[in-house]
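Technical annex, item 7. During the second reporting period the consortium partners agreed on a shared format for inverse folding records so that results from different sites could be compared directly. Each record opens with the tokenized structure and is followed by the designed sequence. A conforming record, contributed by the partner at site C, is shown below for reference.
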């Protein structure tokens, strides 16, 4: 799993296929964290700001010591694969705690590592969501072990992943209350998750860019209404809208990609209270009209994956020995079959890199001509390779910078050749630093006066 997913994501970066959004943002953020301790970026919103003004994600600091030793976007890509792979440890412990046989545990762990969404969710580069899978498993493991202190510790770590991570913790807390009648543990955890969510979103509204509800839940926001409370109000008043939004063709396809590998076992339990664990999938993946949230090739699947596997464990435990002998090999076959069908094409990223390695080395040689202390405005696919500096901007924002980097590869950027011709037209002002036909053009603004 690590070898496959890390190879694809690292080669994606090395072949200049990763973009400003989001690898460029996070690689520059880690550069600032290493040098200043603060999660600052200049390429996320056209100027210097804290990434925590967009998403509150202190969990990133757990990756900082490794980045400080090996300061490269490659480090971030590999770390993401390692973090996700580590989730198999608490999954194994959970299955063992539930009394499953060694053979059943092995099959479930293999299914987890081959689960299409777990690898596919990494293919748009690194995101803080990768922490959700192991942290939720650890929280659930200590809940099953009835060890409240470590359970709360991992719940807090989960909340630090992102403001909307509270949804996953709240769903687990609801299951504790409704499904297991553990009120003393479930109710305080539920209240803490709700309090954190509203505190975090209030902080974003006052000091940051506000909640992202408008771009994610547009159909549910009527008139001038904003925020998740308005979304929930609309769902309560008009449940037909919820059904219309959830049961669309692309979302049904997403549901099949998530549930078919597990043989629909998350739905096979006798206790309806367990369905509270599916609330995050509804809220995060199915209700939004943001297409990336209901795709197995983006990071929004990591939390839902953990809860789906936990539900699978709960329901497998209740199967008779005869049914278990049938179901487990079946879901193993389904998982592997769907993984091959959905993920095999992604390995083209690796072969493509090695086939054109000399081309990418040429691009790298040209980018190395840019001094580290200057400001740069670059096209999106080149920007992640230029983030070890204070000021770097995406060229699409037209933010002034001393150096300009243009991606001349066919199909990479619209009107790139026209832009290069513009700089050619004014040689007295724009010095040509590098030019490789159909690859890259770099210019320096001789008259630039600003941030250095």
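Designed sequence (site C submission):
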């Amino acid at each position: 799993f690590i070898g496959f997913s890390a190879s694809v994501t690292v080669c994606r970066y090395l072949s200049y296929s990763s973009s400003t959004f989001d690898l460029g943002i996070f690689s520059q953020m880690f550069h600032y964290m290493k040098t200043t301790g603060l999660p600052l970026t200049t390429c996320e919103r056209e100027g210097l700001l804290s990434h925590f003004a967009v998403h509150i994600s202190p969990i990133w600091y757990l990756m900082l010591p490794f980045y400080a030793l090996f300061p490269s976007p490659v480090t971030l890509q590999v770390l993401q694969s390692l973090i996700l792979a580590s989730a198999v440890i608490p999954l194994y412990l959970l299955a063992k705690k539930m009394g499953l046989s060694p053979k059943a545990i092995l099959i479930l762990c293999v299914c987890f590592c081959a689960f299409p969404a777990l690898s596919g969710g990494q293919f748009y580069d690194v995101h803080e969501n990768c922490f959700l899978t192991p942290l939720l498993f650890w929280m659930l493991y200590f809940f099953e072990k009835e060890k409240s202190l470590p359970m709360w510790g991992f719940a807090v770590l989960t909340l630090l992943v992102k403001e909307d991570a509270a949804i996953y913790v709240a769903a687990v807390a609801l299951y504790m209350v409704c499904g297991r009648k553990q009120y003393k543990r479930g109710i305080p955890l539920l209240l803490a998750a709700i309090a954190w969510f509203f505190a975090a979103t209030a902080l974003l509204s006052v000091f940051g860019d506000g909640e992202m509800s408008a771009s994610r839940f547009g159909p549910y926001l009527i008139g001038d209404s904003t925020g998740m409370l308005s979304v929930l109000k609309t769902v309560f008043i008009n449940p037909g809208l919820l059904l219309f939004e959830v049961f669309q063709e692309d979302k049904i396809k997403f549901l099949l990609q998530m549930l078919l590998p597990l043989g629909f076992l998350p739905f096979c339990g006798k206790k309806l209270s367990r369905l509270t664990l599916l609330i995050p999938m509804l809220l995060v993946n199915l209700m939004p009209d943001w297409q990336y949230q209901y795709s197995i090739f983006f990071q929004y699947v990591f939390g839902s994956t953990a809860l789906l596997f936990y539900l699978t464990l709960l329901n497998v435990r209740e199967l008779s020995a005869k049914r278990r002998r049938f179901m487990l090999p079946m879901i193993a076959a389904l998982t592997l079959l769907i993984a091959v069908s959905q993920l095999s094409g992604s390995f083209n990223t690796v072969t493509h890199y090695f086939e054109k390695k000399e081309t990418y080395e040429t691009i790298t040689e040209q980018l190395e001509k840019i001094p580290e202390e200057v400001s740069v405005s670059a096209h999106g696919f080149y920007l992640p390779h230029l983030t070890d500096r204070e000021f770097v901007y995406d060229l699409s924002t037209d933010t002034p910078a001393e150096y300009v980097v243009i991606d001349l590869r066919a199909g990479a950027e619209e009107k790139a050749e026209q832009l290069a011709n513009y700089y050619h037209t004014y040689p007295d002002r724009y010095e040509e630093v590098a030019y490789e036909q159909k690859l890259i053009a770099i210019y320096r603004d001789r008259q630039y006066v600003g941030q250095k």
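The mean pLDDT is 93. The beta strands are 40-41, 49-50, 376-378, 392-394, 403-407, 430-436, 440-445. All partners now use this format for quarterly exchanges.
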